[in-house]
Amino acid sequence: MKLDIIQKLKEHDLKVTPQRLTILDTLNRYGHASIDEIYKEVKKVHLSISLATVYKNITSLLQVKLIKELALNEAKSKYEIIKEPHSHLICKKCGSIEDINLSEQIEQNASKLASAKEFAAEETELNIYGLCKNCKQNN
To answer: How much is the pTM?
Structure first.
């Protein structure tokens, strides 16, 4: 993972800094993390890092499409490392996020719907909101 991240940073002309590596490592471990969660984890390793530095790094990583923002209904955005197309199951109670594979059929149907409206779709994202297994059992 680390060598792959270093290679991707270099491909996008971004310096390979310890802070960036820690941010990306945090996202890799968490899967999905808010700025606050990322900052908390990075601060454990880089004691003098500021929240502004984390924001600047997140912005840089977003611009070169190494990570993506997952804007959530009524909650702070979360961030994830870009990987194969997928959807999310998002718990409205605890905020947990689980990746699920986005089938080719859903992606093709979304493209057809967009084309019918003369809209050039560039990506398809599907978020499904509800209750996770744990919250459903404790409800």
So the answer is: 0.82
As to burial, measured by CB atoms within 10 angstroms (0-12 exposed, 13-18 middle, 19+ buried), residue 139 is exposed
- Site of tokens 């899967």: 31
CATH assignment of 2-81, among 3.40.50.720, 1.10.10.10, 2.40.10.220, 3.30.160.270: 1.10.10.10
Q: How far apart are CA 97 and CA 110, in angstroms?
A: 22
3-state secondary structure of 12: coil
Question: What share of the chain in percent tops pLDDT 90?
Answer: 59
Closest CA to 80 of 56, 53, 98: 98
User: Quick one: pLDDT at residue 1?
Assistant: 58
**Of 40, 101, 47, 37, residue with least CA distance to 18:** 47
Tell me the CATH number for domain 86-137. 3.30.1490.190
